[in-house]
Amino acid sequence: MARPVLLLLCTFVVLLASSTMASAAIVEHSFDVRDLTVTRLCREQVITAVNGSLPGPTIHVQEGDTLVVHVYNKSPYNLTIHWHGVFQLLSAWADGPDMVTQCPIRPGTKYTYKFKIIQQEGTLWWHAHVSWLRATVYGALIIRPRSGHSYPFPKPDKEVPIILGEWWNANVIDVENQALASGGGPNNSDAYTINGKPGDLYPCSQDQTYKLNVKQGKTYLLRIINAALNNQLFYKVANHKLTVVAVDAEYTKPYVTDVVVIAPGQTADVLLTANQPVGSYYMAAHPYASQPAIPFANTTTRGIIVYDGATSAAPIMPVLPAFSDTPTAHKFYSNLTGLKDGPNWVPVPLHVDEHMFVTVGLALDRCRNNGTCLGQNGQRFSASMNNASFMFPTSLSMLQAFFFNVDGIYTADFPDKPPVKFDYTNANVSNDTSLLFAPKSTSVKKLKFNATVEMVLQNTALIAIENHPMHLHGFNFHVLAQGFGNYNPKRDIKKYNLVNPQRRNTIAVPVGGWAVIRFQANNPGVWFMHCHLDVHMPWGLATAFVVENGPTPGTRLPPPPHDLPQC
Asked: Boundaries of each Plastocyanin-like domain copy (predicted)?
């Protein structure tokens, strides 16, 4: 009797393995990156684009698939592509941030990104990670459950990417370079966009308004991505409720709302049921400006949801929150919770190995121009974490330096706390020159493999308080708590959600406040952490984690691919 049972068990194991292998595929794409002339806002503009479109191509994969993307750089600029939110387990060489995990793909050359999608489902995205190129070089990355698995919510009738972007009537590289040269802030964008289209509130844009046709009674999964460079956004659909079921490719407990708040880099999967009278309804987005004293583009993009059978009556417009409506933004951000025991759910690690308290905010750098710079006090605007203003290496990527044990590229001395303790969110410190100047360095935090890190991200009032969206490459983190003012461990640790916190890769640190995140460093390599406002990243609001190799071959970073670009 034992032999037939053993034979049956072996057959079951083989069938299970075959089923698992059959459900995983190799998905291959080619990105042709070059200049493209498009017409927006009454004028022609040359942009950098992928495969001749804005946004670029949407990539569809299933969990477990291997993605292979051949990038041909036919543009005049250095280029890398970042797969925003992908864990890149043992594939850090494919993560993409310029001079962190690779040197750039030079004009006229190519590089192939290859990585596996592991234990992730939902909406992510890809974008350029050199200078401001991501203003037009971006697209959706949609990860569906592997064959035989389903969503943890009713299957929608249709899935629709909604990519919110930002548009300049200028060459975005020139906009960035002019700001860096002057030491001041960059020019604001001229429009916001939905799937590359500005919408009919802007000049010459009646025929450049995104339209979504729906059928009454059907449910649609809107995969919302904020690809804007420098603005968080409020998003609404007139007369419709939205049910959030995932953020940053992590399932959430369903959360019903009439407004979605989304920071640059973040994604939100929301269900919209077409349950209103047949007609036309605007979807609209405009900025959440947490610090209205800082100039911003106070315009609105909108698209149209059209029910089958609708007449030509004017669409209904939603009432968006005020630009500086922090209570609405905080309510949305702080009410999301994780779907405990749902697909790919990861419990909160309870033992913490590394405690970090990290200030995030603006700073100044000494003016090096022959004259006065355009930043505060005639200096250059800068930014820092724990008073360390990040500076990219120039001769070798940080990941190459880690793998080949090359000294002089970075220093493993990023501090666990700020060098000076002060009243972080008190507006009276905004022009305290003893605190404003942050030295430049390529300073990183070194972590043991599998170490659990808890980080308090504390906003400061230096120069100005504002909400900072902080993005961590290579990991998702649990958001344990968030609030306003200075973080107080005796008071605020009682607010920790250790049961079902939201888990994501980008956290909008509240204006004049703080957020506590926790993650496990189970992926060897060099992982960038930075503000996803592109105005702040080149100013230095960034650092990196260097995670040591684990003890076994399956926990060690493999060698770089043969075609890795060289500096």
From this structure: 33-147, 159-310, 413-550
DSSP, collapsed to helix, strand or coil, labels residue 3 as helix
Measure the N-to-C terminal CA separation of the chain; round to a whole number of Å. Answer: 65
**Contact partners, residue 478, CB within 8 Å, separation at least 6:** 338, 346, 348, 501, 502, 503, 517, 518, 519
Query: Buried b / exposed e across 112-125, counting CB within 10 Å, b at 16+?
Result: bbebbbbebbbbbb
CB 233 within 8 Å of CB 192: yes
Q: pLDDT at position 319, please?
A: 98
Token pair 């691919």 in the structure block, residue? 561
The secondary element (H helix, E strand) that includes residue 177 is: helix 172-182
Query: Can you list the residues of the chain whose pLDDT is less than 50?
Result: 1-22
- R_g (Cα) of the chain, nearest Å: 23
Beta carbons of 383 and 456 less than 8 angstroms apart: no
Q: How far is CA 290 from CA 323, 465, 480, in A?
A: 8, 8, 22
Tell me, what's the pLDDT at 371? 65
Note the helical H segments in 183-311.
none
User: Which H helix or E strand runs over 61?
Assistant: strand 59-62
Tokens of 531: 């503000």
Q: Are strands 506-509 and 468-472 parallel, antiparallel or unpaired?
A: antiparallel
